Amino acid sequence: MSTTLNLKSGRPNGTGAARRLRRDEQIPGVLYGQGMSPVSVTVDRRDLRVALSGAAGVNTILNLAVDGTTYPAVIKELQRHPVRRTVSHVDFLRINLDEELTIAVPVRLVGEAKAVLAEGGLVDPSQDTIDIVTTPANMPSEITIDISGMHPGQVIRLSEVALPAGTRALGDPDSPIVTAIAGSRAEAPAAAAPAAEGAPAAEAPKSAG
Fold it and tell me: How many domains does the structure of the chain reveal?
């Protein structure tokens, strides 16, 4: 889950300078963390995209090479252009590989909820990610939840999700993570069975008196 990424330090500051960097496919950023002063850096856009292309995505542990020193780090924040959605700035957080950190891990549903599908229902993830506390060595790329045995109306809550070893979840244990929604397919009422041929017709009620 780790990869090396080369950064350049000493970038010029200011909006105009940042605009020129982005035009040259360089992304301005900052590296900070415990025990160090913030360092202004730039990273090649393609190199960053490749570094984050693995299964862990933005949770990838990065070995940042800056001026001959390597820092273990993760991405704290990616700022994006409001229209083009391209990365415009990146914050790198230096980490201690032995200390815990909090990350949001994507949820992936596996299996097929046949009992739900048979009634025209669907399985809906109530949350796309789960916040967990973990050390970098145990950082998962995703959390899988098997929905094969779900039935309409069933809810899988946070306390029921199996987490990887060395991790623990944050949040309300009762919060719903996956919900099986019952289908709207209604059973048509069975038509009244016709009277058997030759059966006597029901007698009309006699009038009183």
Answer: 2
